[in-house]
Amino acid sequence: MRPFEYVRATDAASATAAMSAMPQAKYLAGGSNLLDLMKEDVERPTRLVDITRLPLRDITRSRAGLSIGALATNTETANHPLVRENYPLLTQAIVAGASGQLRNMATNGGNLLQRTRCNYFYDTSMPCNKREAGSGCGAREGLNKIGAILGWSEACVATYPGDMATALYALDVRVRVRAPDGHERLIAITDFHRLPGDTPQRDNNLEHGDLIVAIELPVSAGDFARHSHYLKVRDRASYAFAMVSVAAALDMDGSRIRQARVVLGSVAHKPWRSAEAEAVLVGQRADEGTFKRAAEAALRDARPLAHNTHKVELGRRSVVRALMRASRLA
Amino acid sequence: MPHDIHNDTPAELSADEAALLREMPALSDVGHARRTFMMQTGGSGIGLFAANLLATESALAQLAPVSGAASAPVVAQNVVTINFRVNGAPHALDIDSRVVLLDALRERLALTGSKKGCDQGQCGACTVLVDGQRVLSCLTLAATLDGREVTTIEGLAKGDQLHPMQAAFIKHDGFQCGYCTSGQICSAVGMLGEAQRGQVSHVTENVGKTPTRLSDDEIKERMSGNICRCGAYPGIVAAIQDVHSGHQSAQTWGFATEAQLAMTTDEKKEDGHATV
Question: ipTM of this complex > 0.95?
Fold first, then answer.
């Protein structure tokens, strides 16, 4: 690991100041992804700003809904009674990811910022536009089984690997961010991560020094509490990243669908919310036929790579199964 | 009669193989030839790989050999001072900011029970408890632990009295080679605490309800962060299930007393062989 300066921040202002002072500085929270990438020489920060002592760990009810602190761990969040009761989709997604140890370490803010698991991003002897802008994409014509099938560019076919964020896209959350000047702003989760385009080195729309303070879950997302399901399909039953995952949430009026959310994970550079699938579902009777049409719509624009054609059909079937489970038909 | 490979080429070799063989250096010259070979492959597909190897090799070559040391002394950079407790005892350490908890435990505090398996958060062998929570010590910077309480496998037993989980692992053969065992046991202790606090898992049928009793499937899912290459999983699950259900496993062994140790030393003196 390369040498870095360690700074322990005592409050948000000192944290953002320590970041702003150095372009190669990074925040350190749970460290479960960052430390691994530093050992692999993929991340090379010259300073780590330890924010684990900041008071951003509370999960509190607000007028707008539920505010979950950026530094609350994945374990604390998944098991909070108000999350389990009102947003069980989030609990399901979190406990589908990583391992008990890692969920105890990982924080909500850090989880949003976790980086791709693309093999070429990890292998510093290979070209990767995300790791080193302009070096090329090794995965485009390389081994790309775990690559994207939607929204990729010639510059990058990496996927966002996380489970938690996939559920957060379905719950319409907003991310509260504090800028180095002290100003706070809310970013809609669908605007948080980016598609790769020509700048895959940027995973999200945060600026250097921005500090995630909290994730705000709206009251309205509680409408999905009774009919939601997080489905994760992977190479083994536990402790593996998804090949495809689906966060499905329905707001039902009897057997009719009032509102719907369909988000696919591990298929694109960001969790892929399918407005097309949701449009098919709204106003319809919840049954397998409807779900199949929604799945068809969700994957209509899919462009698989050489080694992941299977993800298209897997994606369709996963959407159907997740919706069947969400609607309690299966 | 020994063959001189430079002159006496076995007849079954192809022309290419024979040419290679002729160019092969004597053994003492291998290092030089390897470098030459790597230089020559610079333009080919494995050029980058070769260059990396070469860089490592040159870096190692530049280290002055230190007599009696396994490796050259490393100068600590960006030193951070931490005060924390390990297995109840206070420790103050000045450490390089890069040092992870696992290395601090093993290299600075001589607590080698926590094992380095993958060193990248995939195997669970390094699992310890920090403030009662199971975490991976290979991905935890020691610098972040000021004021924290760490419990390792060495801290679970009370003197000669094993922790119930340790006794249960012995009773149920929850290991073979033993390399993953300290991580498994620390993880299992942390996991049962989580279950006691009503936490749910990926296999919990309804996350709105708190599981009262862990099924084998629940245990397997909750322990999936600990890999056992020997495949002692059935014994591991049985051991955890035993502790979870409150069954006490009788301790079937104890540490040798001073007097017993003295006896084995005497025996060694008499017959000239170690008895251990």
Answer: yes
